[in-house]
Amino acid sequence: MTTMKAIQMHEYGPASVLRYEDVQRPVAGSGQVLVRVVAAGVNPVDWKFRAGYLKDMMPLALPWIPGFDFSGTVDAVGPDVEAFAVGDAVFGKSSFPGGGSYAQFVVVSTADIVRKPAGVNHVQAAAIPAGALTAWQALFNDGALELAAGQTLLVLGAAGSVGSFAVQLAKRKGARVIAVGRASQQAHLRALGADLVVDTARGDLSSVGQVDAVLDLVGGELQEQAWPLLKRGGAFASTMSPPSAEQASARVARTAFIFTQTNAQQLAEVASLIELGSVAVHIAKTLPLENAREAHELLEAQGVLGKLVLTT
């Protein structure tokens, strides 16, 4: 078999530019494996690449197959691969500019995958990488929030994939978590373990009080409203835009702009927590691969609780 089914974009634009078509099946090179994809996670960055929002900073070589998160089985191994064998169940996150997980097969470096725990199914595994890694790296990496037990964390946009992991991981660390989301998301946020849930429709965060750290997953007006809540010497991280240097200086605060990196050790640790039931994966909806357009439209409309996953 030399071809496969995949979602491909030949130009930037709305979700309608995504085509379900036959494409050349990739071949594993040195240090790579070919994974037969069972499920692929859908992330906000996927539609932002598709729409062209990132083309000046990270241009794509078109045509391009979107998608970074995936779970499946090793179908073939390239030269110099010893850590994985055909038939191994794996999951991971391909590195930019590869993408390629919206397909029946994807080629990735062995550094981008880990073995899937038996107690985690492929749909759950595909929902882990980008969301969990982003949350983990924002909360715990050196130079980011470096969250500690007993601190108070404010999470803006807490109900999505990254926020859902962030709330749970912060609670496991022993932090107090204030989660900000829509009214329809309140029950979900409480179930995640948030100590206080704030409705964005209130349009005012002043009643929240002072916090040690802010994780901004939405940007814009909410990001601006969060700054006065940050204690002097606190930390502010954002996945949306570099936090204000002026605001940080006024509060002697650390800042971090989070761009997720694949980290096998962190992936394996999160997967272990999920298998043990210590952290939950929240799947908003599963869709067949050919319905990728619908998945993008749902994400763009916002308000999705958890993760959207495509199945092959």
Structure, explained:
With 312 residues, this protein is an alpha/beta fold. The chain has two domains: 3-128 and 281-311, Quinone Oxidoreductase, Chain A, domain 1; 131-257, NAD(P)-binding Rossmann-like Domain (Rossmann fold), CATH 3.40.50.720. The protein has helices at 44-51, 122-126, 129-140, 161-173, 186-192, 220-226, 245-251, 264-276, 292-301, and strands at 3-9, 18-24, 32-42, 69-77, 89-93, 105-109, 113-115, 152-156, 176-181, 196-199, 211-216, 230-238, 254-257, 283-288, 307-311. The strands form three sheets. Strands 3, 4, 5, 6, 7, 14 and 15 form a seven-stranded mixed beta sheet that branches. Strands 10-9-8-11-12-13 form a six-stranded parallel beta sheet, sandwiched between helices. A two-stranded antiparallel ribbon has the order 1-2. Strand 11, helix 6 (220-226) and strand 12 (230-238) form a beta-alpha-beta unit. Helix 3 (129-140) packs across helix 4 (161-173). The model has no long low-confidence stretch (mean pLDDT 94).
Beta-strand fraction estimate: 25-35%
Just give the CATH class of the largest domain.
Alpha Beta
Biggest sheet details = 7 strands, mixed
Alpha-beta classification: alpha/beta
Q: Could you state the order of secondary-structure elements as H and E?
A: EEEHEEEEHHEHEHEEHEHEHEHE
Please, how many domains? 2
Q: Tell the overall outline.
A: globular
Number of helices: 9
| CATH topology annotation of the largest domain | Quinone Oxidoreductase, Chain A, domain 1
Span between termini:
17 Å
Could you tell me the mean pLDDT?
A: 94
Q: At the fourth CATH level, what is the homologous superfamily of the largest domain?
A: Medium-chain alcohol dehydrogenases, catalytic domain
CATH architecture of the largest domain: Alpha-Beta Complex
Q: Please provide the count of β strands.
A: 15
Please estimate the helix content. Answer: 25-40%
Low-confidence segments = none
Please tell me how large the radius of gyration is: 19 Å
Domain Enoyl reductase (ER): 13-310
Protein name: NADP-dependent oxidoreductase
Organism: Dyella koreensis
